[in-house]
Every structure is written in structure tokens, then in C-alpha cells.
Specification:
The complex is a heterodimer of chains A (about 150) and B (about 500). Chain A is built from 7 helices and 4 strands; from the N terminus they run ααααβααβββα. Chain A is of the alpha+beta class and about 150 residues long. Chain A folds into 2 domains: about 55 residues, no CATH class; about 80 residues, Glutaredoxin (3-Layer(aba) Sandwich). In chain A, helix 1 packs across helix 2 and helix 1 packs parallel to helix 3. The two termini of chain A are about 25 Å apart. In chain B, a hairpin with a 6-residue loop joins strand 3 and strand 4. Chain B contains 21 helices and 18 strands. By secondary structure, chain B is α/β, with parallel strands linked by helices. The longest helix of chain B has 18 residues. Chain B folds into 4 domains: about 80 residues, Glutaredoxin, CATH 3.40.30.10; about 210 residues, NADH-ubiquinone oxidoreductase 51kDa subunit (Rossmann fold); about 90 residues, Ubiquitin-like (UB roll) (Roll), CATH 3.10.20; about 90 residues, de novo design (two linked rop proteins) (Up-down Bundle), CATH 1.20.1440. In chain B, helix 6 packs antiparallel against helix 7, helix 6 crosses helix 9 and helix 16 packs antiparallel against helix 20. Classes of the chains: A alpha+beta (about 150), B alpha/beta (about 500). Chains A and B meet through helix 2, helix 4 and helix 5 of A and helix 1, strand 14, strand 18 and helix 16 of B. The structure holds flavin mononucleotide, iron/sulfur cluster and FE2/S2 (inorganic) cluster (FES). Iron/sulfur cluster binds next to helix 17 and helix 19 of chain B.
């Protein structure tokens, strides 16, 4: 891991330093930003650890723990709300036996919510990894989840 | 020899989510089909939609499944695109290319008038560009509706070694997707708008801040930038004008222009106090124009057709067209580009087609999470900035979400407050503390232990947030909640402890 962190950081060094960019690049590579890496990030970018920690805690999409193999995100935006995203989320919680933000036993799925995916015209929307699904009915969830190994 | 038929299928994210991706996979190896992946017309209730050429223009098939291929190849039962009322009744100006072109085909963009706005801009120079925008009376489409020319003038007159042009592609308002459509469907129009701006203010660098939830949009835009660069479009006065796409990290308030600039610099996306405005001191302290994607995409036509052409559309203080985005329980969700001034009722009936099957109208929300709710009795309001402002409402980014009879207004109000509490940047107390208090009160009411004093408390809290918040997140967040209480008081009272 150290080596990976080092090589990513070497790539994103810039003047002036950009902390968020560095964190997102690390996340792209490792799936999350390990908190152990904070001091290394700080020294590589030439900023304080407090600055790094501040940015790290600010952004909802910067993850401190590794997600499951697949990340399921249920859109909670208003168009999805009107079209029953609440029911979809409850069904997923029941099926996977997890709460929002948790990873199901076996590490296959992490369940999360998101705000609008810009897919409002074919809502409700669920995003799994980078794939988007629209007009989803709770009855379609089983077949959908089976596609992910 | 086998005949090969050209079929047009959208590659837009929502079209794919509706099934266009499945069709493309199913037909990819088909010897009789040549698939052209175009942008979407925005009639999403018809997607996946497949079109083919005919002597009288394109003919379309709606809600297509893979089994429909023989029907389409035989040419039976298609509908001429021209005769689809949802599209025929619109004034497609900014969205004229949608459904017609391949998003990354620069030659098609140019053949349909693309880059002629930039040509004009290069010829007439900064002062005349800004004058043209003043004549056009274009106001920003990101939410604040500030006159575009005014902002550009400030940035133009600022003296600085470096200036920046930033496209706000954070599109945070739930229920809006027109920026995503532009990024994915007509990306050169955005780039052209940004280049015109750079020419007007003398900027040397451009950024597009794109929300993380739009991976497809960021990818298409990056490809478009590369193509534009190869075609040597990304230069002004012999100097390079590089444009970079930067992705956000899931924070709503980063759509606010000063928080966006903080985030672009890689810092916490916290709102900066204004003045100074970004046009005076923005990215890294340099004069910066931050404008919405739709705003930039509207500008090429203004330069090529003239400001007066634009000013002739719309109402007294809202000139041009607006891209409205229908969602929720409406029968025809999709993109509607029309001149300002139609009533909400007209829009929902004429374009929305009424309610989705099995649904009865309850309320409509205009302007996203900072907008207001309108009940059936207020549907005559014309969609334009001034009348909305008088009613204490906002058009925002043009999102229109329809709620049906099953909507629980107390839960919806709680949902709004919880959103604000989650998204507050924490810079000022009324918003940071007020939104948490507001959420707690609504949770109490929802649980059946709220009192009539709690409703009064919500009003007081809302009034404080409105007047004392630093930005519109805290300042406008009370509106959806308070309009829910105003229009559906019985639902709230029924839940109170007696
Ligand atoms: C909380 C908040 C969120 C905002 N989100 C966006 C957004 O997602 N996209 C956008 O273009 N403008 C957004 N704005 C408005 C911007 O601050 C700014 O006014 C706009 O980008 C200017 O562009 P325009 O002049 O083209 O409208 C937001 C404002 C606030 C207060
Ligand atoms: S109103 Fe809310 S989001 Fe805006 S500056 Fe204050 S705390 Fe931040
Ligand atoms: S509200 Fe869910 S995709 Fe827009």
C-alpha cells in the first residue's frame, strides 16, 4: 500500500497543491483513502495534516473505509422521492440486512444513498458502481442484484 | 447484397438507464443494422426510442424492446418525429441538435451552425460581445438569474495577469438534468460558450467543475475537449486556452460559486463571504467568471443570431427560452425548452400530459431543494423570474417535480430539512444549527409528539434562516418546508399531540 500511495502522490503533485485532487486520485486507486496515509499525503503536498484531515472529512464521497466489491447507491432526490425511492431503499436494507453506509456480510455490497443522479425523467434511480438503472420497481431488485458477482 | 439500415439510438445516460444500452448490446452484431448513437431528444417517457431516416424526415419507434427490430426494419408503425406533440410544441434553440447529431461529431456540430457564434465573437471583440449580451438581456440559468453581461463587464475591466472561466456543472438541484444532457449530448456548445467568454474577458484558462454523480458526462466532455484541441479550437489570439474537467465529491453546497472555487482549489467547499465577487477575485484570487453550463450553452446562438433575436423571446424581464425539466409523477417526464411565460398548468398539461397513470395531483415543486411547493390552486403562475420572485418563489435551474396523492407532506418536509442539515457547509449559525433544529422538530411531529408550538417554532426558525444566512442554501431551505405547511396545514395538525 505504501508504494501505491507514493506513486499516486507523485503523480498529483502540483503548484499550488490540490488536496482534494490528491485524495480522489488515491481513492480511485485504492477504493478509499486510508487514514494512516494522512501524514504522508500532507508531507508529499507540503501542507499540514490538519488541512488534509479537514478536506478528508468534508466531502461525503471521500471514503475512509474500503467499500464492498460493489457500491449500491439509491437516489434520494425529489423526483425519485415522488416515485417511491423510500420503498426501494427499505427493500434493499431488508434484502442485504444492512443500514445505509454499511457493507453486507461477505463484503459483496455496500449500500449508500446519493442525491440526484440527473436521471430524474426515468426515476426512481439506483446506481451500482458506474451503472445507472431507472424506472426500478422493488420486484426487479432480485434480478438486478444477481447480475453482480 | 444485404441492405444495411441506419438506426439512430440515444447514448444519453437516462436513455441507457431506460433500456437503450440493452438494445445496443442486442443489436451490435446484427448485419442489417448500422447503429448511430445520438444525443437524446429529451422525450424520456418514450425512451428507448429508435429512429430511422425517411424521405419526410426521421421516423421513430417508442419504448422499444430488442424484439421490435423486424418491425423497425420493415418500416411499419413508425411515427414521424415532427408529429410528436411533446417535441413539436417546443421552441428548440439551445437544444436544437438534440436527437439529431452524434455528440462528438465536430463536423456535424459545425454543419448545423456550430462555431459561428465564436467566429462572430473573434471578429467583433470584447466590448461588442458584452454589448450583444446586454442587448440579449440574458440572465444566468444556474439559479441566481444575474444579468450575464454585467458580470462579464466586471471581469473584463479587472486588471490581472490571469483570468479564469469556470463552467458550473455541479447541477445539484434534484429534479434537474439539462446540464447533464448538454455535457453528454452537445458538449461543443458548452466549449464554444466558454471560449466566447474567455475572449470577452481575456481569460487564459478554463475549468468545468462536474458533479461526481455524472461519470458519463465527464467522460464525453473530456473527449470533446480533446477533439476541440486537435482541431486547434482551444486557442485565442495565438495563445492556448486549455480547458480542464474537474470532478466534485458529492457536496451540494459546492454548486454555490464561491464554495465551488474553494473546492476547485482542493480545499473544503465552504462558502466565501462576498464581496469580493468571483468576477473581481475568484479562483486563486484572480478575476473569474463562474457560470452555469446552460448559460454558456445559450451564448453561441446569441452571438450568431444577435442579442435582439434573443430579447424578442420570453417576457419583459425574462428573455429567451428556459429549459424546464419535468420529473416526478407526471405522465411525460422530459426536457421542455420553451420561451418564458407559459403557466405551470400549461406546461404540465401540454407537455407533461397530466398525471402518471393511477396518480392524482397533489403539489408541484419548482426550483429544486431551495424552491417552493405549489398546490393545485396556484397553477396559473407564469414561469418567469419576476412573477416567481414576487410570489417568494424561484425558478432555480428549471426543475419541476410533481407529487401525487400518496405523498406524505410531513415526511417530505422532514426530507427537505434533513437534506439542508446534511449539506450545510457550517460557515454560519442560522443554517448550521437551524437546519438541525428544524429536522428535529419535524421528526418530533412525524413521531406524533409534536405540539402546536413546534409549528410556530418552525416558522420562527425559518424566518431567522431566511434573513440571517450567508448564502441561499440556508436562506432558501425554509421555503419548501414552510410552503408545505402553508398549503397542507391539516396534514401537519393531524400529527400533533393534543
Ligand atoms: C447552495 C447553492 C447551490 C448551488 N448549486 C448550483 C449548481 O449546482 N449549478 C449552478 O450552475 N449554480 C448553482 N448555484 C448558483 C451559483 O452560486 C451561481 O450563482 C451560478 O453558478 C452562476 O451561474 P449563472 O450566472 O450562469 O447562473 C448554487 C447556489 C447555491 C446557494
Ligand atoms: S447558509 Fe449554510 S451553506 Fe450557506 S454559508 Fe451559511 S452554513 Fe454554509
Ligand atoms: S431525483 Fe433521482 S435522479 Fe434526479
Amino acid at each position: 500500500m505504501r508504494e501505491q500511495v507514493k506513486s499516486v502522490l507523485a503523480r498529483v503533485r502540483s503548484k499550488p497543491p490540490n488536496i482534494l485532487k490528491a485524495l480522489l486520485a488515491l481513492q480511485e486507486r485504492l477504493g478509499h483513502v486510508p487514514t494512516e496515509a494522512v501524514s504522508e499525503i500532507a508531507s508529499a503536498l507540503g501542507v499540514t495534516t490538519a488541512q488534509v484531515a479537514g478536506v478528508l472529512s468534508y466531502y461525503p464521497d471521500v471514503r475512509l473505509t474500503a467499500p464492498g466489491r460493489h457500491l449500491i447507491r439509491v437516489c434520494m432526490g425529489e423526483s425519485c422521492y415522488a416515485n417511491g425511492c423510500g420503498r426501494l431503499l427499505r427493500e434493499l436494507q431488508d434484502r442485504l440486512r444492512v443500514d445505509v453506509g454499511e457493507t453486507a456480510a461477505g463484503g459483496k455490497f455496500t449500500l449508500d444513498t446519493m442525491s440526484c443522479a440527473g436521471n430524474c425523467a426515468v426515476s426512481p434511480t439506483v446506481m451500482i458502481d458506474r451503472d445507472l438503472y431507472g424506472r426500478l420497481l422493488p420486484s426487479q431488485l432480485d434480478t438486478l442484484l444477481e447480475r453482480y458477482k | 447484397m444485404r441492405t444495411v439500415t441506419r438506426l439512430y439510438l440515444s447514448n444519453d445516460t437516462s436513455a441507457r438507464a431506460a433500456g437503450a444500452g440493452v438494445l445496443a448490446d442486442a443489436w451490435s452484431e446484427h448485419p442489417e443494422v448500422q447503429l448511430i448513437r445520438i444525443s437524446s431528444r429529451g422525450a424520456f417517457y418514450l425512451e428507448p426510442m429508435v429512429e430511422r431516416d425517411s424521405p419526410a424526415g426521421r421516423v421513430a419507434w417508442f419504448n422499444v424492446t430488442a424484439q421490435d427490430l423486424p418491425l423497425i426494419l420493415s418500416g411499419t408503425d413508425g411515427t414521424p418525429v415532427r408529429s410528436i406533440p411533446f417535441l413539436a410544441q417546443q421552441t428548440r434553440v439551445t437544444f436544437a441538435n438534440f436527437g439529431e447529431t452524434e455528440p462528438l461529431a465536430l463536423d456535424e456540430y459545425q454543419a448545423r451552425g456550430g462555431l459561428s457564434g465564436l467566429e462572430t465573437a473573434l471578429r467583433i471583440g470584447p466590448d461588442a460581445i458584452i454589448e450583444e449580451l446586454q442587448v440579449s438581456q440574458l440572465r444566468g440559468r444556474g439559479g441566481a438569474a444575474f444579468p450575464v453581461w454585467n458580470k462579464w463587464k466586471v471581469a473584463q475591466q479587472a486588471r490581472a495577469d490571469q483570468k479564469y472561466v469556470v463552467a458550473n456543472a455541479d447541477e445539484g438541484d434534484a429534479g434537474t438534468y439539462c446540464d447533464r444532457m448538454i455535457l453528454e449530448g452537445d458538449p461543443f456548445r458548452l466549449l464554444e460558450g466558454m471560449l466566447i467568454c474567455a475572449r470577452a474577458i481575456g481569460a487564459g484558462r478554463g475549468y468545468v467543475y462536474c458533479r461526481q454523480e455524472y461519470p458519463g458526462a465527464a467522460k464525453t466532455l473530456r473527449a470533446a475537449i480533446q477533439k476541440a484541441d486537435e482541431a486547434e479550437l482551444l486557442e485565442l489570439d495565438g495563445e492556448p486556452f486549455p480547458i480542464e474537467v474537474v470532478e466534485g465529491a458529492g457536496s451540494y453546497v459546492c454548486g454555490e460559486e464561491t464554495a465551488l472555487l474553494e473546492s476547485l482549489e482542493g480545499k473544503r467547499g465552504v462558502v466565501r463571504a462576498r464581496p469580493p465577487y468571483p468576477a473581481q477575485s475568484g479562483l486563486y484570487g484572480s478575476p473569474t467568471i463562474v457560470s452555469n453550463v446552460l448559460t454558456f450553452a445559450t451564448i453561441p446562438n446569441i452571438l450568431s443570431r444577435g442579442g435582439a433575436w434573443h430579447a424578442a423571446l420570453g417576457t419583459e424581464r425574462s428573455r429567451g427560452t428556459m429549459a424546464l425539466q419535468l420529473g416526478g409523477r407526471v405522465k411525460h417526464p422530459g426536457l421542455v425548452e420553451v420561451p418564458f411565460g407559459l403557466s405551470l398548468h400549461q406546461i404540465l398539461e401540454q407537455f407533461g400530459g397530466g398525471m402518471a397513470p393511477g396518480s392524482r395531483f397533489k403539489a408541484v415543486q419548482v426550483g429544486g431543494p431551495l424552491g417552493s411547493l405549489f398546490p393545485a390552486s396556484q397553477m396559473d403562475i407564469p414561469v418567469c423570474y419576476d412573477v416567481f420572485a414576487k410570489a417568494g418563489a424561484v425558478l432555480g435551474h428549471g426543475g419541476i417535480v410533481v407529487y401525487d396523492h400518496e405523498t406524505d407532506m410531513v415526511d417530505l418536509a422532514r426530507h427537505f430539512m434533513a437534506f439542508t442539515a446534511d449539506e450545510s457547509c457550517g460557515k454560519c449559525t442560522p443554517c448550521r444549527i437551524g437546519s438541525v433544529r428544524g429536522r428535529e422538530i419535524l421528526e418530533r411531529i412525524q413521531a406524533g409528539s409534536g405540539t402546536i408550538e413546534d409549528l410556530a417554532l418552525l416558522h420562527d426558525l425559518g424566518d431567522t434562516m431566511k434573513v440571517a444566512s450567508l448564502c441561499a442554501l440556508g436562506g432558501r431551505a425554509p421555503y419548501p418546508v414552510l410552503t408545505a405547511i402553508e398549503h397542507f396545514p391539516a396534514e401537519f395538525r393531524a400529527k400533533l399531540r393534543t
